[in-house]
Amino acid sequence: MFHFLKGKNKENVLYAPCKGKVVPLSEVPDPTFSEKILGDGFAVIPSEGKIYAPTDGEIAMVFDTLHAITLTSSSGTEILIHIGLDTVTLKGAPFTAHVAAGDQVKKGDLLMDVDLDKITGSGLNTVTPVLICNTDDYEKISLKKEGEVSLDEAVLSIS
User: Fold this and answer.
1) What residue spans define the domains of the chain?
2) Which partner from 8, 82, 94, 141 sits 20 to 30 angstroms from 72, CA to CA?
3) Catalytic residue among 3, 67, 82, 98
4) What is the 3-state secondary structure (H, E, C) of the chain?
5) What is the edge-to-edge ordering of all strands in the sheet holding 12-15?
6) Angle at 95 between CA 36 and CA 29, to 5 degrees
7) For the domain 11-158, what is the CATH code?
8) How far apart are CA 79 and CA 44, in angstroms?
């Protein structure tokens, strides 16, 4: 009843973190993501090795192995960008971070360079889940776009 007390905007939008093909989480071949264990969201099969901020916010954490980044949007949405599946096993080799915990970012800021060929050459999948880790704080999370996407396209609506 008092949803305004949650401190969230009426509607938030996440944009694509990279160029590629947006797919629903149900199509990610890893149950941790497809069954939404860590949260709801979407995934992108990247067509180039650059990961950008999907919204304005603050970097909460860059994992030591550089395979994932968490950020909190300016409206309080907790976001996990997990680059590829099982890429933690690569111990950071295909990744170059351009941000650190505490950095303020704007939508479209470059977060990470990724060598997609190194990931696929290691037999791993490059699909990149983007999760809302505080899913329970929202009434509705809906995919606005599937298929080929550019950086300026809204992909997920959160309200």
Assistant:
1) 11-158
2) 94
3) 82
4) CCHHHHCCCCCEEEECCCCEEEEEHHHCCCHHHHCCCCCEEEEEEECCCEEECCCCEEEEEECCCCCEEEEEECCCCEEEEECCCCHHHHCCCCEEECCCCCCEECCCCEEEEECHHHHHHCCCCCCEEEEECCHHHCCCEEECCCEEECCCCEEEEEC
5) 12-15, 154-158, 141-143
6) 30
7) 2.70.70.10
8) 14
> Is 98 one of the annotated active-site residues of the chain?
no
Number of residues in the chain = 159
Q: Which two tokens stand for residue 99?
A: 């941000």
Q: What percent of the chain lies above the pLDDT cut of 70? A: 93
Is pTM, for the whole model, over 0.90? Answer: yes
Among 2-6, 59-63, 87-91, 151-155, the least confident range? 2-6
- Dihedral sign for Cα atoms in the order 39, 84, 57, 152: negative
Computed over every residue of the chain, the mean pLDDT equals 93
